[in-house]
Amino acid sequence: MPAIGLIILCCYLIKQIIMKTKISYASAFLLGLGMIFLGARFFTSPELATAGFGIHFNAQGDYSFDYIKGIRDIFSGLIICAFVLLKEQRALGLTLLAGTMIPLSDMLIVLGKSYNGVQQALPHLIAIIICFVFGIVLLATKPQLKAL
């Protein structure tokens, strides 16, 4: 009987690992799509996107920051989505973990402005947590064998 219990426990643990990986993939894909949307918004509505980022709009009409930020977000989102679609678990995990530096630096920039507080930093903090947690989960979980 103890062997049956061990088999049940192993099956349960394998199911939990697979679920964590699926949840991590789904969350990463949604994160990637969100980044593409946010990046595109810097091109289509720079004033709204800049305010959403947490800094004041440049009234002189210079959208250089917006375009730099927009293309960075679109590229990052495309890379994340590509790794998800290709089921490149380790590359995705490493990208998310290393990519934590982007929302971290964004949050520090936002908090460096005297007119901002925790509310403006919150989206960046959430992105840090998502990238860190799912990056760790994907790196710590043994990659699934790919079917040929």
How is this structure best summarized?
With 148 residues, the protein is an all-alpha fold. It has one domain (24-140). The chain is 80% helix and 0% strand.
What would you note in describing this structure?
With 148 residues, this protein is mostly helical. It has one domain. 80% of the residues lie in helices and 0% in strands. It contains six helices and no strands. The chain has helices at 2-44, 46-53, 64-85, 89-99, 101-111, 118-140. Helix 1 (2-44) crosses helix 2 and helix 5 (101-111) packs antiparallel against helix 6. The radius of gyration is 19 Å and the shape is elongated. The mean pLDDT is 84.
Q: Bin the helical content.
A: over 70%
Tell me the total number of β-strands: 0
**SSE string, helices as H and strands as E:** HHHHHH
Q: How many H/I helical runs?
A: 6
